[in-house]
Design a protein that fits this description.
Elements: H1 3-14, H2 26-29, E1 53-57, H3 63-76, E2 82-84, H4 94-106, E3 110-114, H5 140-156, E4 161-164, H6 167-178, E5 187-190, H7 199-208, E6 212-214, H8 221-228, E7 235-240, H9 254-261, E8 264-268, H10 284-307
Parallel strand pairs: 1-2, 1-8, 2-3, 3-4, 4-5, 5-6, 6-7, 7-8
Length: 332
Amino acid sequence: MSNIVERHLNVRTSVTDSPRQPGEPALSALGLSAPAPDPADASPHTFPDGGTWRVEIPSVEGPEAVGVVLKEASRLDVPIHRISQGSGVWMLRDTEIVEMVEATAERDIELCLFTGPRGTWDTGASVRTDSRGAGLRARGHDAVAGCVEDAVRAVELGVKCLLVADEGVLWALHRARTQGIIPADTTLKVSALIGPVNPASYAVFEQLGADSLNVPSDLTLAHLTEIRRVSAAPMDMYVEAPDDLGGYVRMYEIAELVRRGAPLYLKFGLAKAPAIYPYGAHLRDVTLDTARERVRRGRLALDLLARHGAGDGMSPLGSRLPGDLKRFNTAQ
């Protein structure tokens, strides 16, 4: 074994007793050490089970892709708390939804399906302009109705988590669960397509009924700390974002993302991968290949957490509820 390799192994094994920043202590030996983390920057919040992070594999577009993800997760020993889909409930047959529900339930994994039509999937063209128009919201009553139809259908088939991309849909579904139209333990997840970018908007989404919120992957560490000063609602963040969400790769920040953003769902998208929404059989090969690679990316990130001595905060597998959150009064 070369001296360089031996020194590298010594660095890795000598620092596992306490969290460290990437590159330390090698940079310290060169007089280039980073400032110590400020305890005031750390999130004071956790999931109700005491964990600080959970794992989500996104863009898993059907039962076959679920099977690929579960097989690869077993092979690479990747713990998964949530599997989410992006094409929408309306792009799946009842039998496919039931198959996904049963496969994830067998492993005690939360399944999250997207609701209804949005933005570029209807007749609106303004989202393609420079101004982006209304963004990828649900345009008009009919689009909201489609999202609610998807939600009711999905929960009747056993889905317990719904992904939404519109504030009005979020509020409607939150009111629906408070009135027993959908089960009270249904969780509502805000899409990265409308992710909040400041503490005030994050707090508003929480009040509207969000149980976890995707934030854009270009938010700074300081932004995460600002959000955590006003809200304890779980945060979802792409450690690696797909190209249409920026293509950011933040692997080496993962321990600090958890420290600042907890409770945090770590999501693994893929940069430089073809778009697969809305999914159909014509995209089968790329969908299964990318599903498999997302799990591998998760393994790489979890290895980094362990290497930096920061891997102990994972929620128990099977955890899914967000704890007590702040809500607007639904009676008004």
